[in-house]
Write a structure and sequence with these properties.
CATH class of the largest domain in chain A: Alpha Beta
Protein name (chain A): Indolepyruvate ferredoxin oxidoreductase beta subunit
Strand content of chain B: 15-25%
Keywords (chain A): Iron, Iron-sulfur, Metal-binding, Oxidoreductase, Pyruvate
Organism (chain A): Roseiarcus fermentans
Number of domains of chain B: 1
Radius of gyration of chain B: 19 Å
Structural class of chain B: alpha/beta
Shape of chain B: globular
Order of helices and strands of chain A: HEHEEEHEHEHHHHEHEEHE
CATH topology of chain B: Rossmann fold
Largest interface: A-B, 18 and 28 residues
CATH superfamily of the largest domain in chain A: Pyruvate-ferredoxin oxidoreductase, PFOR, domain III
Number of domains of chain A: 2
Domain 4Fe-4S ferredoxin-type (chain A): 239-268, 269-299
Distance between the termini of chain B: 38 Å
Helix content of chain A: 25-40%
Oligomer: heterodimer
CATH superfamily of chain B: Thiamin diphosphate (ThDP)-binding fold, Pyr/PP domains
Largest sheet of chain B: 7 strands, mixed
Number of helices of chain A: 10
Distance between the termini of chain A: 60 Å
Helix content of chain B: 25-40%
Order of helices and strands of chain B: HEHEHEHHEEEHEHEHHEH
CATH topology of the largest domain in chain A: Pyruvate-ferredoxin Oxidoreductase, domain 3
Number of helices of chain B: 10
Structural class of chain A: alpha/beta
CATH architecture of chain B: 3-Layer(aba) Sandwich
Largest sheet of chain A: 6 strands, mixed
Number of strands of chain A: 10
GO molecular function (chain A): iron-sulfur cluster binding; metal ion binding; oxidoreductase activity, acting on the aldehyde or oxo group of donors
Strand order of the largest sheet of chain A: 2-3-1-4-5-6
CATH class of chain B: Alpha Beta
């Protein structure tokens, strides 16, 4: 590593170099892991790579550990020992950030967000999501050296958004002491003919971006980045459930089929809205009530004080 | 029929409020089917005074009585026959028949096949709960095999009728099927059936929780309604000749829609031609 403090230099010469690559299924984590492993081998180093890609095809988390050195024993990287962390997806990068070596670890992340469905905690229109809220500037404060770029946008301008992983590999190439020609040779050999040209181009674009960012630290993150907020035009809806107790026969359908589980049967076996704040006004109870005892009323809430 | 979609559907506008709550058992799917019918009627903008609902006998026969429109509670199995006369005499009305599996397929089976053949502009909603609910839970033509009913205490041995294939084979120009669990989808199928010019047969898979579900250990009404969705599997709607009886896996949605001359129109054209001929003869 270039930014290695002097006292540790002797130890660093013998210990293995640890790189972690994380992302979401389908982004190409394993493809760039393989490229990185081949580049390590090309330098005459021992390489060990291990990966977890269980539910990856369903948008699940994928991570890959790559260790190279003169002699490498364990295939996995311990917490706090990664020299570089490449994140193909923003929240995945933040999730693994404590695996980076404090002070010296290099953090390279795409700011593109892939929001999993379970981050949507409420069905209300414009409701806040349980997705990472850190801005790139905040995230880069937590690491020794950081780069947050919209690699997907760079790859898209080249004509193929899926090449974002190679853009990030190009950024990484400026942090590792390996000749650029070797990286290009490995990519040339690894990628299929159809996507070879775009991958090489994406690698060069990433490398060029990183070289510019090294000279000018203000370029290292997109200052204009704003986490997706509630849309300005999202109406503030108020939901009211009107339960006609005289018609309810206590069949339990609304209680069991409410996606938010906000209804219960009271002592009289009549549907009762236990958690009014959890009700999103989805109308499932209204549709499925065989006795027409539930009516969902929605209205745009007036601004406070209006 | 007015195509304009009106919003703010309030079912109370379409119910005879003095008769509510209705007499159906807790969790009976017929109520959901009734809501979907009224919802479709509302979205199509059909005037209540131009809507005629004809129903037969059974739990399904009582459903029509709660609708604040022109309703006609007829004899067992014969709502289609009454509706045929009504539609021929008053072609300006939107005629909907609400019938059940026993009413439509057993007692009124003959009326169904001829209504399909004739292709008069009627929408027939068959609420299929697989049992004769009102009379105490006897076996019906659509009771699934091996199910327990009061008349099949050791399990039903008769093959199960697939009403949609029957209607298709008899020539219905519109055949649809949907479960009550998917209320908005059911509404869309009913809406398509109402808008279709010709005989529309719609099978609504409903639940009888008190008599059929409890006897067969199918759970309470929420469990039965949740099971509906897992029973529906996308599978080609086969030719009626291949497999006349009902498979376990069903396809929902609009199954058949074909262009055939509507009988009422054909009848009126012929009558007009005859009248002109007689007049010419003088």
């Amino acid at each position: 590593m270039r930014a290695e403090p002097k006292g540790e230099q002797a130890a660093a010469a013998t210990r293995a170099l640890n790189v972690m690559i994380v992302g979401v299924g389908g982004q190409g984590v394993l493809m760039i892991s393989k490229a990185l492993a081949l580049i390590g081998q090309k330098q005459g180093l021992q390489v060990k790579q291990s990966e977890v890609h269980g539910m990856a095809k369903r948008g699940g988390a994928v991570f890959s550990h790559i260790r190279f050195g003169v002699e490498v024993w364990s295939p996995t990287i311990a917490r706090g020992e990664a020299d570089a962390l490449i994140a193909l997806e923003w929240a995945e990068g933040l999730r693994w950030i404590d695996y980076l070596r404090p002070e010296t670890g290099v953090f390279i992340a795409d700011t593109r967000r892939i929001v999993p469905p379970f981050a949507c905690r409420s069905r209300r229109h414009g409701a806040p999501m349980a997705y990472a809220r850190e801005t790139p500037a905040e995230a880069l404060e937590k690491v020794g050296e950081g780069f947050a770029l919209d690699a997907t946008a760079i790859a898209t301008t080249l004509g193929e958004p899926r090449a974002a992983n190679t853009v990030l590999l190009g950024v990484l190439s400026t942090s590792l002491d390996m000749p650029a020609a070797d990286w290009l040779a490995v990519l040339d050999a690894l990628t299929p003919p159809k996507s070879r040209a775009i991958n090489l181009e994406a690698f060069r674009a990433g490398r060029a971006w990183a070289e510019a960012a090294r000279d000018d630290p203000t370029l290292r993150f997109d200052a204009g980045f704003v986490p997706r907020a509630r849309p300005a035009d999202a109406p503030d809806m108020s939901v009211a459930l009107v339960i006609n107790a005289a018609w309810c026969k206590g069949c339990d359908i609304c209680v069991k089929l409410c996606p938010e589980r906000c209804l219960v049967l009271d002592a009289e076996q009549v549907a009762f809205l236990k958690a009014p704040h959890a009700c999103t006004g989805c109308r499932v109870c209204e549709w499925l009530c065989p006795d027409f005892a539930i009516e969902v009323r929605t209205a745009v809430r007036e601004a406070a004080g209006a | 029929m007015n195509e304009a979609v009106r919003t703010n559907f309030d079912i109370k506008d379409y119910l005879r409020l003095e008769m509510m709550p209705h007499f159906m058992c807790p969790g009976c799917g017929h109520g959901i089917a009734l809501r979907c019918l009224l919802w479709a009627v509302h979205e199509l903008g059909v005037d209540k005074n131009r809507l005629a609902v004809v129903s037969g006998i059974g739990c399904s026969g009582r459903v029509g009585a709660y609708i604040d429109a022109n309703t006609f509670h007829t004899t067992h199995g014969r709502p289609l026959a009454f509706a045929t006369g009504l539609k021929l005499a008053r072609p300006d009305l939107t005629v909907v028949v609400i019938t059940g599996d026993g009413d439509c397929l057993a007692i009124g089976g003959n009326h169904l096949i001829h209504a399909c053949r004739r292709n008069l502009d009627i929408t027939c909603l068959m609420l299929n709960n697989e049992v004769y609910g009102m009379t105490g839970g006897q076996v019906s033509p659509t009771t699934a095999i091996d199910r327990l009913t009061t008349t099949t205490p050791h399990g039903n041995a008769e093959p199960t009728f697939d009403a949609c294939r029957l209607a298709d084979a008899a020539g219905a120009s519109f055949v649809g099927r949907e479960v009550t669990r998917q209320a908005p989808a059911l509404k869309s199928v009913i809406k398509a059936g109402l808008a279709h010019e010709g005989f529309a047969f719609i099978e609504v898979l409903s639940d009888c929780t008190e008599i059929y579900g409890r006897k067969n250990d199918l759970g309470e009404s929420p469990e039965m309604i949740l099971a509906q969705k897992s029973d529906m599997r996308p599978e080609a709607f086969g030719n009626a000749a291949d497999e006349p009886f009902r498979p376990n896996r069903l396809r929902a949605g609009v199954l058949v829609q074909r262009d055939r001359p509507e009988y009422g129109r054909v009848y009126r054209e012929r009558a007009a031609a005859e009248r002109a001929k007689a007049k010419a003869k003088g």
